From TrEMBL:
<dbReference type="InterPro" id="IPR044152">
    <property type="entry name" value="YqjM-like"/>
</dbReference>
<dbReference type="GO" id="GO:0010181">
    <property type="term" value="F:FMN binding"/>
</dbReference>
<dbReference type="InterPro" id="IPR013785">
    <property type="entry name" value="Aldolase_TIM"/>
</dbReference>
<dbReference type="Pfam" id="PF00724">
    <property type="entry name" value="Oxidored_FMN"/>
</dbReference>
<feature type="region of interest" description="Disordered">
    <location>
        <begin position="112"/>
        <end position="142"/>
    </location>
</feature>
<feature type="domain" description="NADH:flavin oxidoreductase/NADH oxidase N-terminal">
    <location>
        <begin position="6"/>
        <end position="341"/>
    </location>
</feature>
<dbReference type="GO" id="GO:0050661">
    <property type="term" value="F:NADP binding"/>
</dbReference>
<keyword id="KW-0285">Flavoprotein</keyword>
<dbReference type="InterPro" id="IPR001155">
    <property type="entry name" value="OxRdtase_FMN_N"/>
</dbReference>
<keyword id="KW-0560">Oxidoreductase</keyword>
<keyword id="KW-0288">FMN</keyword>
<keyword id="KW-0521">NADP</keyword>
<protein>
    <submittedName>
        <fullName>NADH:flavin oxidoreductases, Old Yellow Enzyme family</fullName>
    </submittedName>
</protein>
<dbReference type="GO" id="GO:0003959">
    <property type="term" value="F:NADPH dehydrogenase activity"/>
</dbReference>
Amino acid sequence: MSSPALFQPLRLDGLELENRIIVAPMCQYSARDGEATDWHMMHLGQLAMSGSGLLTLEATAVSPEARITHGDLGLWDDGTERALAKVLDAVRDYAPVPICIQIAHAGRKASSEAPWRGGQQVAPDSPHGWLTEAPSPLAHAEGEVAPRMLDREDMKRIRDGFAATARRAARLGIEAAEIHAAHGYLLHQFLSPLANRRSDEYGGSLENRMRFPLEVFDAVREAFPAGNPVWARVSATDWVEEGWEVEQTIAFTQALKARGAAAIHVSTGGVSPRQKIAIGPGYQVPFAERVRAATDLVTIAVGLITEPRQAEAILVEGKADAVSLARALLYDPRWPWHAAAELGARVRAPKQYWRSQPH
Ligand code: FNR
């Protein structure tokens, strides 16, 4: 039996993943002032033992106002760096797996309640709220306080914040960096005509809307060690007419590739409450397939990929180069072990679990 595609190694610049299963970024809203807690040790600890080829940290804020909620993980000062170091050192000691940080700014979707409290906007004058910042002074949803429009100085501060977070991540030994340009957060807000109504060189044409996200990419690429891969997560469509769509995503991906992106991670949606998403198994894979075909860049597919044979088919049929899983890995943190057993491969397990895998 030929060895399954899902368990072939994958090279991303100077980093080689043992297999093509990636733990998707998953916000936990369980940090204190941006600092990782024991929850992160438990959560990341179990996912590090999952047998996945890469473990992506949740959206990690570049500054306090970049957080979705006040419980978001951050990496913006020595305190947040120390807290994350403690978690990552322990995880690495026992379950070594390459780690990717997702670097994020929530823009106008910041200052929110955790989803289990309803996810609604927190007013700027509430104890855990603040005035949000975005490309244009347009609220995400009706009834919300509109964000403050970013000026050029603000944009430099944010770009430098992404780079500073990338430098701290490199110091922590984090091997890869994913820039969060999806799901309606700040960089997606610049890309999408639904959120960006600027009349300067950062709004209007596609070239102008891509300008700031590309500047952020360049700053992170420059700040992160050569050979350690950097890429972006994008929403390939807003699922709204007149919104950002796949042809523009392809143009953005080509620009990222020209600047040295090692991959593209293709998700969808999040910028508008008017989105109408056709959800079903692998519902975002056709977008990954189109982006991959048009750009020939290493492509990561995500979204309701839940079955080993489904994941294997996505790779064998050339629709993507790797799959990223979120909910399936929460449901079954040994998903890659089960996939390996089903497809006829093996994954690395902690030595303490030496008798655990079928052979
Ligand atoms: C997410 N998702 C997400 N996406 C992202 O880009 N950054 C993040 O921090 C988070 N946070 C997050 C938390 C939790 C608990 C879930 C379930 C999801 C989206 C996630 O990465 C993924 O794209 C979607 O969940 C779709 O994949 P699955 O769950 O169908 O495999």
